[in-house]
UniProtKB/TrEMBL annotation:
It comes from Trueperella bialowiezensis. Residues 1-178 form the Formyl transferase N-terminal domain. The lineage of its organism: Bacteria, Bacillati, Actinomycetota, Actinomycetes, Actinomycetales. Its EC number is 2.1.2.9. Residues 203-295 form the Formyl transferase C-terminal domain. Keywords: Protein biosynthesis, Transferase. The gene is fmt. Belongs to the Fmt family. GO terms for molecular function: methionyl-tRNA formyltransferase activity. Gene3D superfamilies: 3.40.50.12230. (6S)-5,6,7,8-tetrahydrofolate binds at residues 108-111. Attaches a formyl group to the free amino group of methionyl-tRNA(fMet). The formyl group appears to play a dual role in the initiator identity of N-formylmethionyl-tRNA by promoting its recognition by IF2 and preventing the misappropriation of this tRNA by the elongation apparatus. This is Methionyl-tRNA formyltransferase. InterPro entries: Fmt, Formyl_trans_C, Formyl_transf_N, Formyl_transf_N_sf, Formyl_transferase-like_C_sf, Met-tRNA-FMT_C, Met-tRNA-FMT_N.
Amino acid sequence: MRIIFAGTPDTAVPSLDALVADHDVLGVLTRVPAPVGRKRVLTKSAVHQRAEELGLPVLTPTTLRDADVQRQIAKLGADAVAVVAYGMLVPPELLSVPRYGWINLHFSLLPRWRGAAPVQYAIAAGDTRTGTAVFQIEEGLDTGPVYDVVEREIAPTDTAGDLLAELAVSGARQLSEVLTRIEHDALTPQPQVGEATHAPRFSAKDTHIDWREGAHVVSAQSRGWWPAPGAWTKLGETRVKLGPVRPTDTTGLAPGQIDAGKRVLVGTGTTAVELDQVGPAGKQWMAAADWARGVQTSDPRFEVGGSDA
């Protein structure tokens, strides 16, 4: 199949590689170079860099509503546009330009977790299963009919970063196979069934730990927001980021109360959790024990409730 690939972050790169191996990729759509790091160095997206390594032509429009951009896309003569975490809305007039339309690999079990951050929300919400769905893009946000779904159990130690990296690889194979089956008229998309939930871009308020929640809830949230942006809390007026935390059987600590013995434990609404990595404001990540040794109070406690950040 003749394909245009649309994607931006590193999680989209495995799909680009799979499609280049199995299909005829005519060109790549990706986001414009963006400032990265403290020095704000203008950097091409991961997909952009990989496309150049593969010798593919790259388009970086700031909007798909521009008539010249639409003519460029149509001129390529693709049978389909394969989309993975592109990050740009497709206007209605472009959806029907390729013969098979725009086909999206989404990292959730649609209609659960439509939106930009499905893996993060699935873990943070305590879901036990997730997966990937390949669907037909239509005007609504992630509302189109689904060609194929692959499920995967969420383990109690999974982080968003690890799980997303795994789904990116397995989903790449799935997307390529689905496109082959579509080309041979061997697959018909089915309407989404079930209650829709949404995974919008998250804010600091979403990632703030409320220690009144149970240990497993706090653990799920810490893993869902790892490695970026990282869950956070406050010690006095100082913001502290937290890596993934582990539930324990330890009781007797009030919510937010810190016990820095052999392990660094924090009380929750049920049992305590054990801290692993801590990121103090303006400093590098460090082992929780190293961080705890620098805490200047005899009875350290994290701020208990959530906040507006």
